[in-house]
Amino acid sequence: MSAKESVAIGQLLGLLESRYAIRVLWALRDGHAQTFRLLQDSVGGITPNTLNTRIKELREAGLLTHGGEGYAVTAAGADLLKRLGDLQAFASKWAASQSKKTK
Known about the structure:
It contains five helices and two strands; from the N terminus they run ααααββα.
């Protein structure tokens, strides 16, 4: 991996590590736009101020957009979510293995 690639990965991970950032994107993974209020409900537990901050950051990063029907992921955001899709299958397997350890 080149230094440029390492920097790019570091920047992306830094953005996604922000509290609720991945959850905001994940709430929009079906491709349907959501209003601010619906998005807040979809994410769960997020304050309006935090949601505003995440929306601003994700819009600046080109992963989120706002249109007439609300907030939606951009093509780049959809690409990222597609790549993160494997995370769901991994998480299910991982959670099952963790529950076996506690028994």
